[in-house]
């Protein structure tokens, strides 16, 4: 005898009841909802004002003031680029202080970090370069590589290797990637990690054979391979 098929009970939604409950909730919390909605509108308006009205003229002024510091950087007058001339021309440190939140201030962290690295102020350089962020993958890769240089100079080889690898991966190309892979390989050799160094040298040979590093990499592969044994 076939079993009687069980019937699923129907779920009946009382639309009117739901509507009434919703209406009652809104009525009872009218003031709270009004304040919350008003707060959201104020926040949106504040953001719009900041980015559309307040920031653009400040950004323009910051870019104009940074131009002189950039010129000093290009001329390798790094102390002037950092501090300014004490008269009307600002250095990168003052641009960061005076124009916080602008693209010019962000880029000044990059310039300041590279300047400190070149002056041997490696810890200061790391701090500034870590403050820099950019959608420009090439510039970001250079910044990461510069942090690697600083850690290398501070004899923090593990961190140097980490940042060189990050720099190589950030923007894979035939110019910067083999440079940073090679630096990572040299750092690994300094750490006596010859097998890992050889692997990076082989990667340069396979992926970036036409680069300056790739054309001369065989002797480094041979050296690392020999040191493994």
Task: Describe this structure in a few short sentences.
The chain has twelve helices and no strands.
What does this protein structure show overall?
With 229 residues, the protein is mostly helical. It folds into 2 domains: 43-133, no CATH class; 137-229, Serine Threonine Protein Phosphatase 5, Tetratricopeptide repeat, CATH 1.25.40.10. 76% of the residues lie in helices and 0% in strands. The chain has 12 helices and no strands. It has helices at residues 15-28, 30-74, 78-83, 92-98, 103-118, 122-131, 137-153, 157-170, 176-190, 194-207, 212-215, 218-228. α6 (122-131) runs antiparallel to α7 and α9 packs antiparallel against α10 (194-207). The radius of gyration is 29 Å and the shape is extended. The N and C termini lie far apart (81 Å). The relative contact order is 0.05. The model is unreliable at 1-13 (pLDDT under 50).
Describe how the helices and strands are arranged.
Blueprint: H1 15-28, H2 30-74, H3 78-83, H4 92-98, H5 103-118, H6 122-131, H7 137-153, H8 157-170, H9 176-190, H10 194-207, H11 212-215, H12 218-228
Question: What is the residue-averaged pLDDT?
Answer: 85
Biggest β-sheet strands, sense, barrel: none
> Considering DSSP H and I runs of 4 or more, what fraction of the residues is helical?
over 70%
Q: Approximately what portion of the residues adopt beta-strand conformation? A: under 5%
What count of domains describes the coordinates? 2
Structural class: mainly alpha
According to CATH, what is the topology of the largest domain?
Serine Threonine Protein Phosphatase 5, Tetratricopeptide repeat
What does the radius of gyration come to?
A: 29 Å
Total E-strand runs: 0
- List the total number of helices: 12
CATH superfamily of the largest domain: Tetratricopeptide repeat domain
N-to-C SSE string, H for helix and E for strand? HHHHHHHHHHHH
Are there runs of 5+ residues with pLDDT below 50, and where? Answer: 1-13
Distance between the termini: 81 Å
Classified by CATH, the class of the largest domain is Mainly Alpha
**Apparent shape:** extended
Q: At CATH's second level, what is the architecture of the largest domain?
A: Alpha Horseshoe
